[in-house]
């Protein structure tokens, strides 16, 4: 149940950012759910491989190259999903930064008090 709520919160974050950022476009709410799902799958499967392959440049840039890796993940999702468009690498970097920030705010709602 918590996984579905997290997925819907991620989709909500994608929708909010598509309204705020002019370089990002999501057609429908169903597309936003698919975007959230695809980005989650890409983060689980592809991102660790990219991090390992680019470890020297990531160390050299003190971790800033991870922004480029996040942009690659966003652009890959935009390539596979027809109703999701990102205008360029800069918009993908901004989208990934704001998505992470918005997800942390929305997911803090789910935290249970211990």
UniProtKB/TrEMBL annotation:
Residue intervals passing through the bilayer: 32-55, 62-82, 88-110
Q: Which domain of life is it from?
A: Bacteria
Q: Which UniProt keywords apply?
A: Membrane, Transmembrane, Transmembrane helix
Q: Where is the signal peptide?
A: none
Q: What is this protein called?
A: Phage holin family protein
């Amino acid at each position: 149940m918590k996984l579905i709520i997290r997925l819907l919160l991620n989709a909500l974050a994608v929708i909010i950012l598509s309204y705020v950022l002019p370089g990002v476009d999501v057609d429908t709410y169903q597309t936003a759910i698919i975007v959230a799902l695809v980005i989650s799958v890409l983060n689980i499967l592809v991102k660790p491989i990219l991090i390992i392959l680019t470890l020297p440049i990531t160390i050299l840039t003190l971790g800033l190259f991870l922004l480029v890796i996040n942009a690659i993940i966003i652009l890959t999702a935009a390539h596979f999903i027809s109703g999701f468009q990102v205008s360029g690498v800069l918009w993908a970097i901004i989208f990934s930064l704001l998505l992470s920030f918005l997800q942390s705010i929305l997911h803090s709602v789910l935290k249970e008090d211990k």
